[in-house]
Amino acid sequence: MSSEHKRFVAYALALTIGHCAVPAQSAEIGSAAKTRHAELAREILADQTLSDVRGMARDLLKGRFNAGSGYGEVWIRDLNTFIEVALEVNPPQRLREALLPFFEFQGTNGDIVDGYIPLDGAKVKYAYRTSALATNLMAHKNTVETDQESSLVQAVRKYVSATGDRTILQERIAGVTVRERLGRALQYVLTERFDREHGLVWGATTADWGDVQPESPWGVELDANSHRALDIYDNAMLVIAINDYLLLLHDNATEAARWNTARDGLKRNIRKHLWDVNRQKFIPHVYLAGSPFPKDFEEDAIYYHGGTAVAIEAGLLTRDEVARSLDQMVANVRAAGAGSIGLTLYPPYPEGFFKNPQMRSPYSYQNGGDWCWLGGRMIQALIKEGYIAEAYRELRPMVERVKRAGGFHEWWSRDNQPRGSGEFRGSAGVLGRAIELLQVWAEHNRDPSPEGHSGEGRP
User: Mean pLDDT, to the nearest integer, of 156-173?
Assistant: First the structure.
């Protein structure tokens, strides 16, 4: 085992055990329960499918960091979700080099691009951006999104936490340190994408965490037909990013206080404006100037799985609310006839509500497709909340189909057939990470003695 891998395993262990610690009142848990935990731990450790899929994820993430076989670009929203597993199987310098171009393409206003690609591969109809700092590359930004800046901050924090390499923060890009550029990126969101009336950030209307708006067939760029809206995914991603940025600050109490205030305001306003108390779910969109959908369409009935998972990661729900959210996701999967809680949303938007051909029909692509890429993040969130048995149960359908298909795919149809890009590294990253967290928990809990116990499922 390399020193980098040892450091990463220690990091995973601290993260998993720290989040899965049993509440104080559980200290008196009976021996029968401890035995069940030990049995679950041994079942997880004996599960060959978990080990096989984790190995497949590590193999896929060796060497190349483009999003998948159908994508030539290195996307920051994808890299953010597979950087931890990639660091297990690549020299840290490779991931450092993959991160730095995002700063080389950073706009003067602080904004961050979606992805970059070698010049000869820039053939998609994006509005490409060039940089004198990276003349062999071109970059693009899907302006309907508001998660690129948050994704880069999160990815850099994960890199630093896993490797211990804080020198990246002092590397200068055109005379400005990476740490300063991260601050500029977050400030861009709060300056250019912030709605002061609600105290939340906005993006175009998309399906949950998606990057396609309904008003045009291409759908990735803001235009005169866009409908600006507030949603849970963008705002939860920013909360996580601010938490991560605070970990990267060094002895700057004034700046830390400012970002703590910004984060706390976001958390309050998310609960105030986006949480539906009666339905116990997040409201899909709060529109700033009208909706793109028919007036008689009850969009609030749609449950956003991906945004909810990210909200749990951001610490925006109580443990009981997490349990209810999982119950609703499982019920949605059953009602949809889908394969896993990677189901994007339920019910899907009706036929023709999105003009993009991939989004036009229900249960297609981001409109109700089944994505391990987001389902795996829900599994990780459940593990960190201590819902181990539930996480294992809901992970199994995802890893079983990956093993059956022989690889990681972008999304899955309702009848569990692979769709979209093959070699989808985001799926490999989140599933590989979820499996590692489960196995780390299991190693720590295989012994039913008090010293060996650190977590459980539902009380």
Answer: 98
CA–CA dist 39, 33 (Å, integer): 10
218 φ/ψ angles, rounded to the nearest 5 degrees: -75, -60
Residue identified by tokens 């329960």 is 33
- CA–CA dist 79, 75 (Å, integer): 6
Q: What is the DSSP letter of 225?
A: T
- Cα dihedral value 135, 177, 429, 217, nearest 10: -50
Domains present along the chain, CATH in parentheses:
3-452 (1.50.10.10)
431: number of Cβ within 10 Å: 30
Q: Are 138 and 130 in contact (CB under 8 A)?
A: yes
Per-residue pLDDT at 395 exceeds 50: yes
- Find where tokens 């989808």 sit: 424
Per-residue pLDDT reduced to its tens digit, 340-358: 999 999 999 999 999 999 9
Question: Distance between CA 341 and CA 374 in Å, rounded?
Answer: 9
Listed in sequence order, the residues at least 6 apart from 392 whose beta carbon sits closer than 8 Å to its beta carbon are 40, 43, 44, 438
pLDDT surpassing 60 at residue 2: no
Is the CA virtual torsion 19, 341, 319, 280 positive or negative? positive
Is 128 exposed, middle or buried (CB count within 10 Å of its CB: 0-12, 13-18, 19+)?
A: middle
E strand or H helix that includes residue 303: strand 303-304
The size of the chain, in residues, is: 459
For residue 308, give Cα distances in angstroms to 78, 220, 249, 327, 355. Answer: 18, 22, 28, 12, 25
Residue type, 217: P
Question: Which residue in 438, 443, 454, 432 sits closest to 86, CA to CA?
Answer: 432
Output the pTM of the full model.
Answer: 0.94
Q: Work out the mean pLDDT of the chain and round it to a whole number.
A: 93
